[in-house]
Amino acid sequence: MSNICQTEDRQLADKSQIGVKMDRVTIRLPPQQVELLEKLVQTGEFPTISEAVRYAVREYLSKRGDRIVRDNDQIVTFDARL
Question: Is 9 helix (H, G, I), strand (E, B) or coil?
Fold first, then answer.
């Protein structure tokens, strides 16, 4: 990740997230996936596991989000950057 930016007490991999309110979501993952996420952090790919997971979710939603929005009349807009 080359787009890392420092905030007061943490790093964000995406500058567009500065000042964005975030909700906490708890997930359970298999140990192998957690180990891979930890390696991504250890190698400097991401500053935290949370950033790696947020990145993966953003990527997935940016690829599938348009279809989800089209299929669901209740959703008016979608911003994959969040």
Answer: coil
Give the model confidence (pLDDT) of 3-36 as tens digits.
Answer: 444 443 445 555 556 778 889 999 999 999 999 9
Q: In one letter, which amino acid is 17?
A: Q
State how far the Cα of 71 lies from the Cα of 8, in Å rounded to an integer: 40
CA of residue 15 relative to chain centroid, distance? 12
Structure tokens at 69: 């929005």
pTM of the shown model: 0.61
What SS3 state is found at 12? strand
Which amino acid would we find at residue 55? Y
Q: Which two tokens stand for residue 68?
A: 């989800």
Alpha helices, H only, 1-82: 31-42, 49-71
Q: What are phi and psi of 22, to 5 degrees?
A: -125, 140
Contact present, 69 and 75 (Cβ < 8 Å): yes
